[in-house]
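Summary: Need help interpreting a holo structure output

Steps to reproduce:
1. Submit the protein chain below together with the SMILES for adenosine-5'-triphosphate.
2. Request a joint structure prediction with the ligand placed.
3. Inspect the structure token block that comes back.

Expected: a single structure record containing both the chain and the bound molecule.
Actual: see attached output.

Input attached:
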Amino acid sequence: MLTFDRFSVHYGAGVHAIEDVSFTVQPGSICAIIGGNGAGKTTLMRAVSGTLGFHGGRVHSGEVRLNDTRIDRLSAHRIVQHGLALVPEGRHVFSELTITENLEAGAASVRSSKLRQERLQQAFEMFEVLGRRRDQRASLLSGGEQQMLAIARGMMSGPEILLLDEPSLGIAPRVVQHIGHTIQRINEGGTTVVLVEQNAAMALGIADQGLVIERGAISMQGPAAELRESDEIHRMYLGGSAVEEADSADTAQPTLERWQA
Ligand SMILES: Nc1ncnc2c1ncn2[C@@H]1O[C@H](COP(=O)(O)OP(=O)(O)OP(=O)(O)O)[C@@H](O)[C@H]1O
Ligand SMILES: [Mg+2]
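--- attached output ---
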């Protein structure tokens, strides 16, 4: 169980990026974190992956716990050992390395070479395109394929919890569907998922619970099914109103129906 308890993060002296945030991610669930630009989503992901310090950020107050361990002051390396893996915003695959080498980099914390090999095979089975092109440089992959590689690399450490920071960013809608479906399969395999997204339709379509973050604070949280029905979410994140959409069946506005892969 991942718990944020009255958690606040500052950058430098003046930027209060996260203010007094509390929530819990239930084991085995998908938790969607929705919010616009600058809301603080990436800051939360930095805080739980031990990378805040690289960006000049620091925990101001509160804490983050994974099961009974406080993790917000651990190094990135130790956090991976505790079972958390981050797929960062912007993917950051190693473009000059091959697909296999990228995946191996994700398994650096895994001591057993047999286990590393097994995970590699699992990645190639789950992401067929990566298997076919395993010896090619990552730079030759499309944006969507690079996102798949970043997700597969995140899974190589065998995480209990996978954190994904805007996997749909800059990706074509058809490929976003594929990514959503992949996240569902990963979750069905037993991995808890924290999914940060501006794409509320995709994220709330597959999530069990959701929360909305605005200017560093939680403005809404609850079961994803309830948030999908929220007029405020329709207005703010889908450019329409749930009521208006329900009233006019032939509207071309996007809807927040259960998202299908
Ligand atoms: N390294 C940094 N130094 C100073 N301020 C920062 C730094 N990184 C982020 N911030 C500020 O912290 C706030 C939260 O930023 P963050 O990147 O967490 O938002 P976000 O929700 O991920 O946004 P986006 O959707 O654009 O990725 C913003 O006001 C941002 O300008
Ligand atoms: Mg971000």
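--- end attachment ---

Reviewer comment: The CA atoms of residues 231 and 242 lie 5 Å apart. Confidence is low (pLDDT under 50) at residues 243-258.
Status: needs-info
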